[in-house]
Specification:
The chain is α+β, with helices and mostly antiparallel strands. It is 26% helix and 40% strand. Strands 1, 2, 3, 4, 5, 6 and 7 form a seven-stranded antiparallel sheet that branches. A hairpin with a 2-residue loop joins strand 6 and strand 7. The longest helix has 18 residues. The radius of gyration is 16 Å and the shape is elongated. The two termini are 24 Å apart.
Length: 145
C-alpha cells in the first residue's frame, strides 16, 4: 500500500504532512505540493504495471539519453494543508499523445479539495520529443476519464 492504489482509473496515494513540509506559518510550503504530486505520478506508473527500470531500459535502447520532463504545470491552490494532515494525492490521465501525457492531479484532505493541477509530461531524447513507449501509452489510455 506504500504506492497507493488505483480506483476507477484514478491513482490514490496518501501522504502525511510533517513539520519539514511546512513553512513558518505551519502551512505546507507551496513547492512541497510538487514533490507530493511527483511521487503520485511515479507510483501511478508503477501500479499500471510499468516497471520503471524495465521501461527505462527499453526506452534507453530506443531513445538513448531519454528523460521524462514536466513541460507545463497549471496549479490552483484552493486551501492550505497543515502539519499532521493526511493528504490524498489523486492522479488521472486526461490525454495521452505520441510524445506527451497530460495528467489531472488533485491534493485532497478528506473530502476537501486543496489543490487542482494539470501536468503535461513530455518524453525526450537528444533534446527532442520522442514517442512514448507503446506499452505505457496503451496502459494509460485505458484509464482515461
Amino acid at each position: 500500500m506504500l504506492d497507493g492504489h488505483i480506483v476507477d482509473g484514478g491513482h490514490h496515494m496518501q501522504v502525511r504532512v510533517y513539520y519539514e513540509d511546512t513553512d513558518f506559518s505551519g502551512l505546507v510550503y507551496h513547492a512541497n505540493y510538487l514533490r507530493f504530486m511527483e511521487r503520485g505520478r511515479s507510483n501511478y506508473l508503477r501500479l499500471l504495471g510499468a516497471d520503471q527500470r524495465a521501461l527505462f531500459a527499453e526506452a534507453e535502447s530506443e531513445a538513448p539519453g531519454f528523460a521524462f520532463v514536466v513541460r507545463a504545470l497549471q496549479l490552483e491552490f484552493l486551501k492550505p494543508a497543515r502539519m499532521d494532515d493526511v493528504l490524498d494525492i489523486v492522479t488521472r490521465p486526461l490525454e495521452v499523445r505520441g510524445a506527451s501525457i497530460t495528467l489531472h492531479q488533485e491534493v485532497r484532505c478528506g473530502d476537501v479539495l486543496l489543490l487542482d493541477a494539470r501536468v503535461k509530461v513530455a518524453f525526450i531524447s537528444g533534446g527532442r520529443a520522442k514517442p512514448i513507449p507503446k506499452a505505457l501509452r496503451v496502459a494509460m489510455k485505458t484509464d482515461q476519464v
